Amino acid sequence: MPRTVIVVGGGAAGFFGAINCARNLPEGRVILLEAGSKFLAKVRISGGGRCNVTHHCFDPTQLVQNYPRGGKALRGAFSRFQPQQTIAWFGAEGVQLKTEADGRMFPVTDDSATIVDCLLSAARRSGVELRTRSPVQGVAKQGEKFQVLLKTGETINGDRLLLATGSNPLGYRWAEQLGHTIEAPVPSLFTFNVPDAPLTDLAGVSVEKALVSLSPKFKGTYCQAGPVLITHWGLSGPAVLKLSAWGARQLQASSYDHPLWLNWLPGVNPQESMAQWQQTKQNHPRKQIANFSPTALPKRLWQRLTAQAGIKPGQCWADFSKVQEQQLTDNIHRYHCQIKGKGVFKEEFVTCGGITLKEVDFKTMASRCCLGLHFAGEILDVDGITGGFNFQNAWTTAWLAAQGMAAP
């Protein structure tokens, strides 16, 4: 008898799993169910509407370092399907990708519709039965068969079931009913609300290389480097987003009320900064401190940090005191503020938490608790930092699930 595969979830992972499974099961039947009126909604809005498909990192050992949770489990998975294979797969479908300076990869069209149209076309050509407005009411296992009950009252029977429901609580509930444990989901990839007027008054100022840390020691995964953008509500930028991912559980446990430290000039140590101040004081004594900075910091930020060090408008370098020197050094290398809530990074919601990874075989993405059940994408307790890593998790786990579901 030809095999029937049911895929629940019409996002990136669901589509990629359905397409590749259908191609490996030419005599079988693959049904993809989406509760909403449109497929691939998250793909459409990702990357500011450009779709950050993957990241130009082809070494699995390096690649896994971009996953706060799930990196160890993905190490073997990436040896079978990683960004190189993603690029080749889309290339074979007629979609060329380009690499930007920071390693992110987008379609050359800079339009997420290119990826959406590609996946829709590939699914139709592969014979996938695409069904929108098909919300699932419940999932059950009867003998060797899965029964998927739709809210319309229809029941679909299948031999294999792929849950690719993202962070939808219903997906977690069905997985639990089929024997799985769920790591509590909490938000990841978000901006920091910092109602600190000395900072938020500088909205629009960005620093290309800064350190942000949840610890005053500036060490470990709770310290991240990169561009930081000051906004009217607090802090954003790649370094902040990376820190929000690595510190997702710690920040959630603190109810997003947590101290934060910034080093605005990590390329220079505090002693070097002090020496720089003294040299400037000696060489340019009549220059005004607020208007003559020996650093590469943006002028508005420098002026704010000097004011917070007690340096008065019009004060010259000749009058720069030891107390001001210490305070300015602290302001630049150990700026302290308080996170008082989280914002949203565009519309790209990412969740840490999901299916406990030890309950999944990452060679086939098969459940270790329920024969015939597979998982792909964000329903797993896997999440990456911003830069195309979450989509790569979707492509990789979906491709592996497809091989597993089509295997004899």
TrEMBL record:
Q: Which InterPro entries match?
A: BaiN-like (IPR004792), BaiN-like_dom_sf (IPR023166), FAD/NAD-bd_sf (IPR036188), RsdA/BaiN/AoA(So)-like_dom (IPR055178), RsdA/BaiN/AoA(So)_Rossmann (IPR057661)
Provide the cofactor list for this protein. Answer: FAD
Q: Which UniProt keywords apply?
A: FAD, Flavoprotein
Residues in RsdA/BaiN/AoA(So)-like Rossmann fold-like domain copies: 4-403
Coiled coil location: none
- Pfam families listed in its UniProt record: HI0933_like (PF03486), HI0933_like_1st (PF22780)
- Identify the residues that the record assigns to the RsdA/BaiN/AoA(So)-like insert domain, covering every copy: 186-350
UniProt protein name = NAD(P)/FAD-dependent oxidoreductase
Ranked from the top, the taxonomy reads:
Bacteria, Bacillati, Cyanobacteriota, Cyanophyceae, Synechococcales
